[in-house]
Every structure is written in C-alpha cells, then in structure tokens.
Design goal:
Distance between the termini: 22 Å
Shape: globular
Order of helices and strands: HHHHHH
Number of strands: 0
Number of helices: 6
Strand content: under 5%
Largest sheet: none
C-alpha cells in the first residue's frame, strides 16, 4: 500500500505533538496571569514553546511536500497546521502585551480569558487526537470550541465595556483594550482550527 499507514501515523503524530505544545503554551499563559510573580520569565518560556511550534509546523510542511500519498487532502493538512500555529502565535502575542505595557497586575477578566484559552486548546487537542479514528467525536469537540469562543467573546465585550465606563486614564484604557482583544483572538484561532476539522469530517463522512 505504498507505505500509506506509516505516512498517516507521521502526520497525525505531528499534529498531536503540535496540540500538546499549544496546551503547554496555554498553561504557561494561565500560570503567568494567575501568579504574575515573574512575567518576563514566563513570557520567555512561552516564546520558547512558540519556537518549538514553528519547528513542528515546518516538519509538517516538509513532510507534506515530500509525501506522494497523504491521509487527508493536502490543503486541509496545510490549513490545519497553519491554524494551529496561529493559536500559539496569539498566545505568545498575548503574553508579550503584558510585558510591553508594563502591566502591574492582571485583571480578573484577563485571568478568565486565559482560562478559556486553555480550555479551548484542550478541546482542539481532543478533536485532533481523533484524526484517523471516529470522526463523530471530532464534531463534539468542535462544538465545545465554538461555545468557548462565544464565552470569550462575551467576557471580552463586557471587559471593554467596563473599561469605557470606569477607566479614567486613556492610556490604560488603550492598553487593556488591546490586551483583551489579543486574548480573545486566541480563541478565534481555536475556532478557525475547529472549522477546518469540521470540514475534514464532512469530506470524510
């Protein structure tokens, strides 16, 4: 069978490596905002995880270019690897905002968004783990990702609304608005990955 099964396992294993790495980044972001005793050190650790994610993405693209037979459509493999990479990029960008803007203390809303990011990443990982298995379980996890994105959108919207009501310093308002929006965009990227996975389910049903 032209070595089809080993190729499938390689792609699926790399995607699992990628989601495990994303969860590590999300855990570090949550730990960063929950404790906030060494934000610079935590941001550096997140950056290291982001670099590792870039290496895995590179490996997937290289394998894609060299493989004659692929377990999923080539465009789906490429789109999924790019979407997963984007999640980690936004986690890294979120952590960077706390350092760039010299944040003294994260808000409860920032902590809640970091928690939702982690849960979203775990749901994406659960869906990715089912590639090559029972596709109906992928759909279940994607529904969870969509619900979490809606929750993050609500938290972000209410946090920004409160900012405009209560924050008197325009500089602080601008800083926190961008932090909230960057955190929320990480959940948008999780939803993008879920949408690609749902498309895979439909194609392979």
């Amino acid at each position: 069978m032209f070595g089809l099964i080993p190729k499938e396992e390689k792609f699926f294993a790399l995607f699992k490596d990628m989601t495990a790495n994303i969860i590590e980044g999300a855990k570090l972001l949550k730990e960063m905002v929950d404790n906030y005793d060494d934000p610079q050190g935590m941001q550096k650790r997140i950056k290291d995880v982001e670099h590792q994610g870039d290496h895995i993405t590179h490996d997937i693209i290289q394998k894609l270019n060299k493989s004659f037979v692929t377990p999923l459509d080539r465009e789906d493999i490429y789109a999924l690897s790019a979407a997963l990479d984007d999640i980690l990029d936004l986690i890294d960008a979120s952590s960077q905002r706390f350092i760039m803007y010299n944040v003294e203390k994260p808000t409860p809303e920032a902590k809640e968004l970091a928690f939702i990011i982690l849960k979203s990443c775990e749901a994406v990982a659960k869906a990715v783990a089912q590639l090559g298995g029972k596709f109906e379980h992928i759909a279940e996890s994607c529904v969870e990702v969509n619900a979490l994105e809606n929750e993050a959108d609500r938290v972000c919207r209410e946090a920004i609304s409160r900012l405009f009501d209560e924050e008197k310093d325009p500089i602080q308002l601008i800083k926190w608005k961008e932090i909230y929006e960057t955190l929320e965009r990480a959940t948008d990227k999780c939803e993008d990955a879920a949408n690609i996975l749902e498309s895979v389910v439909v194609k392979n049903a």
